[in-house]
Protein backbone atom coordinates (compact mmCIF):
# COMPACT_ATOMS: atom_id res chain seq x y z
CA UNK A 1 0.00 0.00 0.00
CA UNK A 2 1.34 3.40 -0.97
CA UNK A 3 0.79 6.01 1.74
CA UNK A 4 1.84 9.06 -0.28
CA UNK A 5 -0.85 11.75 -0.10
CA UNK A 6 -1.05 12.09 -3.89
CA UNK A 7 -2.25 8.46 -3.99
CA UNK A 8 -4.23 8.25 -0.74
CA UNK A 9 -6.29 11.44 -0.99
CA UNK A 10 -7.83 10.60 -4.40
CA UNK A 11 -8.52 7.07 -3.08
CA UNK A 12 -10.35 8.52 -0.06
CA UNK A 13 -12.35 10.87 -2.31
CA UNK A 14 -13.36 7.96 -4.54
CA UNK A 15 -14.39 5.87 -1.51
CA UNK A 16 -16.45 8.76 -0.14
CA UNK A 17 -18.20 9.34 -3.48
CA UNK A 18 -18.69 5.69 -4.50
CA UNK A 19 -19.35 4.02 -1.15
CA UNK A 20 -19.93 6.32 1.82
CA UNK A 21 -22.13 9.06 0.34
CA UNK A 22 -24.58 6.60 -1.29
CA UNK A 23 -24.84 4.75 2.05
CA UNK A 24 -25.80 7.89 3.97
CA UNK A 25 -29.56 8.20 4.48
CA UNK A 26 -30.84 10.78 1.95
CA UNK A 27 -33.35 11.98 4.55
CA UNK A 28 -30.54 12.85 6.97
CA UNK A 29 -29.66 16.21 5.41
CA UNK A 30 -26.95 17.10 7.93
CA UNK A 31 -25.14 13.79 7.37
CA UNK A 32 -25.38 14.29 3.59
CA UNK A 33 -24.02 17.81 3.97
CA UNK A 34 -21.14 16.65 6.17
CA UNK A 35 -20.21 13.86 3.75
CA UNK A 36 -20.13 16.39 0.90
CA UNK A 37 -18.06 18.74 3.06
CA UNK A 38 -15.53 15.94 3.65
CA UNK A 39 -15.37 15.25 -0.09
CA UNK A 40 -14.96 18.95 -0.90
CA UNK A 41 -12.27 19.41 1.73
CA UNK A 42 -10.35 16.38 0.50
CA UNK A 43 -10.58 17.71 -3.06
CA UNK A 44 -9.27 21.08 -1.89
CA UNK A 45 -6.39 19.43 -0.02
CA UNK A 46 -5.52 17.32 -3.06
CA UNK A 47 -5.44 20.41 -5.23
CA UNK A 48 -3.45 22.55 -2.77
CA UNK A 49 -1.01 19.98 -1.40
CA UNK A 50 1.52 20.49 -4.21
CA UNK A 51 1.60 24.22 -3.33
CA UNK A 52 2.04 23.79 0.43
CA UNK A 53 5.83 23.85 0.44
CA UNK A 54 6.04 26.90 -1.84
CA UNK A 55 3.35 28.60 0.25
CA UNK A 56 5.28 28.03 3.48
CA UNK A 57 8.60 29.12 1.96
CA UNK A 58 6.96 32.30 0.64
CA UNK A 59 5.37 33.01 4.03
CA UNK A 60 8.64 32.44 5.90
CA UNK A 61 10.50 34.68 3.44
CA UNK A 62 7.95 37.48 3.91
CA UNK A 63 8.03 37.12 7.71
CA UNK A 64 11.85 37.25 7.73
CA UNK A 65 11.76 40.43 5.66
CA UNK A 66 8.95 41.97 7.74
CA UNK A 67 10.63 41.04 11.03
CA UNK A 68 13.93 42.59 9.99
CA UNK A 69 12.25 45.76 8.76
CA UNK A 70 10.15 46.38 11.85
CA UNK A 71 12.95 45.41 14.24
CA UNK A 72 15.23 47.93 12.55
CA UNK A 73 12.52 50.62 12.55
CA UNK A 74 11.60 50.05 16.21
CA UNK A 75 15.11 49.51 17.64
CA UNK A 76 15.87 53.21 18.06
CA UNK A 77 12.43 53.98 19.45
CA UNK A 78 12.01 51.31 22.08
CA UNK A 79 14.48 49.36 24.21
CA UNK A 80 13.04 45.89 24.57
CA UNK A 81 14.32 42.32 24.42
CA UNK A 82 11.63 41.53 21.86
CA UNK A 83 13.55 43.49 19.18
CA UNK A 84 16.68 41.39 19.73
CA UNK A 85 14.62 38.19 19.81
CA UNK A 86 12.85 39.17 16.60
CA UNK A 87 16.20 39.82 14.89
CA UNK A 88 17.56 36.49 16.16
CA UNK A 89 14.52 34.61 14.85
CA UNK A 90 14.68 36.46 11.53
CA UNK A 91 18.30 35.33 11.16
CA UNK A 92 17.26 31.77 12.04
CA UNK A 93 14.39 31.95 9.55
CA UNK A 94 16.84 33.10 6.89
CA UNK A 95 19.08 30.11 7.67
CA UNK A 96 16.07 27.79 7.32
CA UNK A 97 15.29 29.34 3.93
CA UNK A 98 18.88 28.81 2.82
CA UNK A 99 18.80 25.12 3.76
CA UNK A 100 18.70 23.14 0.54
CA UNK A 101 17.02 20.20 2.24
CA UNK A 102 15.05 21.97 4.92
CA UNK A 103 12.30 19.80 6.31
CA UNK A 104 8.80 21.32 5.91
CA UNK A 105 8.09 21.12 9.68
CA UNK A 106 11.26 23.18 10.28
CA UNK A 107 9.93 25.86 7.92
CA UNK A 108 6.57 25.80 9.70
CA UNK A 109 8.25 26.05 13.10
CA UNK A 110 10.30 29.06 11.96
CA UNK A 111 7.09 30.73 10.73
CA UNK A 112 5.34 30.14 14.07
CA UNK A 113 8.32 31.47 16.04
CA UNK A 114 8.47 34.62 13.90
CA UNK A 115 4.72 35.16 14.24
CA UNK A 116 5.02 34.95 18.02
CA UNK A 117 8.04 37.28 18.09
CA UNK A 118 6.28 39.81 15.86
CA UNK A 119 3.29 39.64 18.22
CA UNK A 120 5.52 40.22 21.25
CA UNK A 121 7.18 43.22 19.62
CA UNK A 122 3.76 44.65 18.77
CA UNK A 123 2.70 44.29 22.42
CA UNK A 124 5.92 45.91 23.63
CA UNK A 125 5.62 48.81 21.19
CA UNK A 126 1.98 49.37 22.13
CA UNK A 127 2.88 49.36 25.83
CA UNK A 128 6.06 51.47 25.75
CA UNK A 129 6.65 53.34 22.48
CA UNK A 130 5.70 56.90 21.55
CA UNK A 131 2.49 57.48 19.60
CA UNK A 132 4.21 58.09 16.25
CA UNK A 133 6.12 54.80 16.56
CA UNK A 134 2.92 52.92 17.44
CA UNK A 135 1.19 54.51 14.46
CA UNK A 136 4.01 53.53 12.09
CA UNK A 137 4.02 49.95 13.35
CA UNK A 138 0.23 49.76 13.17
CA UNK A 139 0.30 50.71 9.49
CA UNK A 140 3.05 48.16 8.79
CA UNK A 141 1.05 45.43 10.52
CA UNK A 142 -2.12 46.34 8.63
CA UNK A 143 -0.26 46.17 5.31
CA UNK A 144 1.25 42.79 6.20
CA UNK A 145 -2.14 41.52 7.39
CA UNK A 146 -3.80 42.55 4.13
CA UNK A 147 -1.30 40.51 2.16
CA UNK A 148 -1.76 37.53 4.49
CA UNK A 149 -5.54 37.72 4.18
CA UNK A 150 -5.36 37.86 0.37
CA UNK A 151 -3.13 34.79 0.36
CA UNK A 152 -5.37 32.88 2.74
CA UNK A 153 -8.47 33.72 0.70
CA UNK A 154 -6.74 32.64 -2.50
CA UNK A 155 -5.78 29.35 -0.87
CA UNK A 156 -9.41 28.44 -0.06
CA UNK A 157 -11.18 30.14 -2.99
CA UNK A 158 -12.36 26.76 -4.30
CA UNK A 159 -14.50 26.32 -1.19
CA UNK A 160 -16.84 28.97 -2.62
CA UNK A 161 -16.85 31.51 0.22
CA UNK A 162 -16.37 34.48 -2.13
CA UNK A 163 -19.46 34.86 -4.29
CA UNK A 164 -18.66 38.22 -5.87
CA UNK A 165 -16.52 37.56 -8.97
CA UNK A 166 -15.08 41.08 -8.72
CA UNK A 167 -13.66 40.30 -5.27
CA UNK A 168 -12.04 36.98 -6.10
CA UNK A 169 -8.35 37.08 -5.19
CA UNK A 170 -5.52 36.44 -7.60
CA UNK A 171 -5.10 32.65 -7.70
CA UNK A 172 -2.58 31.42 -5.16
CA UNK A 173 -0.57 29.72 -7.90
CA UNK A 174 0.11 33.17 -9.38
CA UNK A 175 0.88 34.80 -6.02
CA UNK A 176 3.61 32.38 -5.00
CA UNK A 177 7.08 33.05 -6.35
CA UNK A 178 9.14 30.08 -7.50
CA UNK A 179 11.47 28.52 -4.95
CA UNK A 180 14.85 30.11 -5.46
CA UNK A 181 17.94 27.95 -5.17
CA UNK A 182 21.37 29.29 -4.38
What would you note in describing this structure?
There is one protein chain. The chain is mainly α. The chain has two domains: about 5-50; about 50-175, no CATH class. Helices cover about 75% and strands about 0% of the residues. The protein has helices spanning about 5-25, 30-50, 50-75, 80-100, 105-130, 130-155, 170-175. The chain is elongated.
Task: Tell me the total number of β-strands.
Answer: 0
Spell out the helices and strands N to C. HHHHHHH
The overall pLDDT, averaged over residues, is 89
Strand content: under 5%
Helical content (DSSP H or I, runs of 4+)? over 70%
Give the secondary structure arrangement, pairings included:
Elements: H1 5-23, H2 29-48, H3 52-75, H4 81-98, H5 104-128, H6 131-155, H7 172-175
Summary tags:
182 residues; mainly alpha; 2 domains; 74% helix
Concise account of the structure shown:
The chain is mainly alpha-helical and 182 residues long. It has seven helices and no strands.
